[in-house]
Amino acid sequence: MDWKDNGVKVVPGDQLDVNTAQTPGMSRAAAITYARVGAQKLWAGTVHIHPGAKTGAHHHGELESVIYVVRGRARMRWGERLEYVAEAGPGDFIYIPPFVPHQEINASSEEVLECMLVRSDNEAVVVNLDIAPVETPEAVAWVDPIHKAPPG
Question: What backbone phi and psi angles, to 5 degrees, belong to 130?
Fold first, then answer.
């Protein structure tokens, strides 16, 4: 195997590809794709959402997605009518299962929301949706199913 040309690939942060699937309200840039590095099972890149902005509702088909919040505060809405909501801050991870309608919102009116995104396939699947969201979504807190809190 020619490890020099078929081994580790470093994609400089200032050389991401903005010619990837987009959703209104956010800017995606691809770093790791099949076309760029030969990735077989992953897509990775960045997402920026301007202060106070929100994306259109969308899903990513069969793909699983993980969002890591680098800077800012993310407000996620999801469901058939975006009826559920949760927030994440720097250092938090967000998991989005296949086909889940969702919307990313920058919860700050002053700071850009910067995230890193990884998907379970090498293509950028984005299905934009026309959803009439509920006015007041229900807040959902995550409960760790493995490490339950001690009785107290």
Answer: -110, 95
Q: Does the domain formed by 11-139 have CATH 2.60.120.10?
A: yes
pTM of the model: 0.88
Handedness of CA 121, 124, 130, 132 (dihedral sign): positive
pLDDT in tens, the chain (152 residues): 899 988 999 999 999 999 888 777 788 899 999 999 999 999 999 999 999 999 889 999 999 999 999 999 999 999 999 999 999 999 999 999 999 999 999 999 999 999 999 999 887 788 999 999 999 999 999 888 887 766 66
